[in-house]
Amino acid sequence: MKRKIAFISEHASPLAVLGGVDSGGQNVYVAEICKSLARLGYDIDIFTRKDDQDLPEIVEWLPGIRVVHVQAGPAREVAKEQLLGFMDEFTLSMAKLIRRLHLEYELVHANFFMSGLVASKIKQLLGIPYVITFHALGKIRMIHQKENDAFPASRLDIEQMIVEDADYIIAECPQDRQDLIEHYHADPTRITIIPCGFSSEEFGPASKAGARRRLGLNKNDVVLLQLGRIVPRKGVDNVIRAMHYLKEIPHIKLLVVGGSEEKPDFDRDPEFKRLRALAREEGVEKQVIFTGRRNRKQLKYYYQAADFFISTPWYEPFGITPLEAMACGTPVIGSDVGGIKYTVRHGETGFLVPPHNPAALAEAVKMGISCPEKYGELCRNALKRVNKNFTWSFVAQKAHRLYTRVVAERKARTAFLLDLKRAQTKPLGGYQVNAITYAS
What we know:
Elements: E1 3-8, H1 25-39, E2 42-49, E3 58-62, E4 65-70, H2 87-100, E5 107-111, H3 113-126, E6 130-133, H4 138-145, H5 154-165, E7 168-171, H6 174-184, E8 191-193, H7 208-215, E9 222-227, H8 236-244, E10 252-257, H9 270-281, E11 288-292, H10 296-305, E12 308-311, H11 321-327, E13 332-335, H12 340-343, E14 350-353, H13 358-370, H14 372-389, H15 392-425, E15 431-433, E16 436-438
Parallel strand pairs: 1-2, 1-5, 2-4, 5-6, 6-7, 7-8, 9-10, 9-12, 10-11, 12-13, 13-14
Antiparallel strand pairs: 3-4, 15-16
Helix pairs in contact: 1-15, 2-3, 3-5, 7-10, 8-13
């Protein structure tokens, strides 16, 4: 019999278009891990907020996977920083739907702290255990973003409650686990490390020359790629500043792929406007190409066409894009932070550099292109590492083992409490007071 579980991902639907401010790694994580879990025999409902009036309540998305749109606030796009006040409605809507459709779940897998809040309340109402992947931690975010962090201060208390209440916590990398222990005093025995993954159906190595022809790039160019959400913490400005130190390299190009629109809006999008102004200031405007958003089917050509994928955020809970680049045989130069320092092996699959250090980034690029033999080794090692440790099927197997443990522990605990209750109420030839039996 198939095992039925629920995912909660309040702001990141697997159906959403990627590249916007609130669309990114979590959308990919939920979509891909659910696909692999379905292949393992799970039936999955993904509960996400209804952000469009025309969305049906339930979408039969893929075999074994449904996306359930929950009423929580207005049926339109709302920035995730403003969603917390709608989580009570999300909880009630989800609980009503579960009861109305007579759904039974063995377990809930929550994603992000607001989904964790919902899962905690569902656990109280319906007794369903839950695990959580935070994807980002409020205390770490505040360290880096300070007053620019727009989430309510109550996020920190909610996360602390979830850390203490969840049946298990999934850390995406060793740094994530360490942050949970140091900043939230999490019980290490209730944390398990399960990384993110990449889709081998979407990403793989191919001819660099062929990919460049498809994208209209010169085969002799030195191509650097920055791909992801266009928000300050991703450090796109750091990469642009590094281009200043690379101007003497002939035919060097930086492709900046991402954004909420297919064509960058330099008038209304403040981050695009800031980045283009910076490129002008650094004298590299002609070398920096802002492509705008590209769909998932197009991304592999950008990874395959690049000489190096660059990702130098201030902090990164995990980071899926470096995996996708390595899966295409492209080495990564990344910040020595969070998940990136876990996935990228310095000098083996790419290079690690400090964030906010464009000079160090430029030196890594120069080192990477200086020796063709070494470069080829980086490419081969990247492919080996990602296919051994970071496929979604590998991730789903680890999640399956955790789910099995949680469900077994919950059943054992329930059986123990039931036996205890029976022992307390069973007469032993004496008399019974307040459900406790005393020998006569």
